[in-house]
């Protein structure tokens, strides 16, 4: 395939999926500005691997894996803390206006966002992949590079922590399939 065709195919994919990638990035990091940076880093890495990614049946899964790995690598390196301090002077930036079509209940969204931010890194990634991206235990394990047992235990712990953090009248009962 010619480079022009490959670039056009990549551009078409990213144009169609950038909203979804941005939302996943936001759920991982909890900040829209940082989500944009995270998504841009992941898209850049996806572009360098596009020759490989486009051969997969599930390009979304490949892109999601790159996004999660980029997020986890930034967390381990301390880069995220440094950029937040540098960019915002130690505070947090206000989130841009949410897309009205994408928000059903703003209050519930803010409550869940706050609770997600209080989870450990691996628990947050597990919850986002399992319940927002609707992946199975096995798919989540593959995306995180860990065992299915780890995903199950992280899911149970994360949901227990969320139950403690959230008002039970606000959220329907959360169950984990084992």
Would you write up a description of this structure?
The structure is a single chain. With about 180 residues, the protein is mostly helical. It folds into 2 domains: about 1-95, RNA polymerase sigma factor, region 2, helix turn helix motif (Rna Polymerase Sigma Factor, Chain: A, Orthogonal Bundle); about 105-178, Winged helix-like DNA-binding domain superfamily/Winged helix DNA-binding domain (Arc Repressor Mutant, subunit A, Orthogonal Bundle), CATH 1.10.10. Helix content is about 70%, strand content about 0%. The longest helix has 27 residues, at about 5-30. The protein is globular and about 55 Å long. The protein starts with a helix and ends in a 13-residue tail after the last helix. Mean pLDDT is about 80; it is low at about 85-95.
């Amino acid at each position: 395939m010619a480079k022009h065709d490959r670039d056009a195919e990549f551009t078409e994919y990213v144009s169609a999926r950038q909203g979804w990638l941005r939302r996943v990035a936001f759920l991982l990091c909890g900040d829209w500005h940082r989500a944009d940076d995270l998504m841009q880093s992941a898209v850049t890495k996806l572009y360098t691997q596009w020759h490989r990614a486009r051969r997969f049946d599930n390009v979304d899964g490949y892109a999601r894996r790159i996004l999660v790995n980029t997020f986890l690598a930034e967390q381990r390196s301390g880069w995220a803390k440094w950029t937040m301090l540098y960019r915002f002077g130690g505070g947090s930036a206000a989130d841009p206006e949410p897309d009205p079509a994408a928000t059903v209940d703003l209050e519930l969204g803010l409550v869940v966002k706050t609770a997600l931010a209080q989870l450990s890194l691996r628990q947050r990634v597990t919850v986002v992949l399992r319940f927002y991206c609707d992946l199975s235990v096995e798919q989540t394990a593959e995306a995180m590079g860990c065992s299915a047992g780890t995903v199950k235990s992280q899911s149970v712990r994360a949901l227990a922590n969320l139950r403690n953090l959230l008002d039970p009248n606000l959220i329907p009962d959360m169950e984990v399939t084992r």
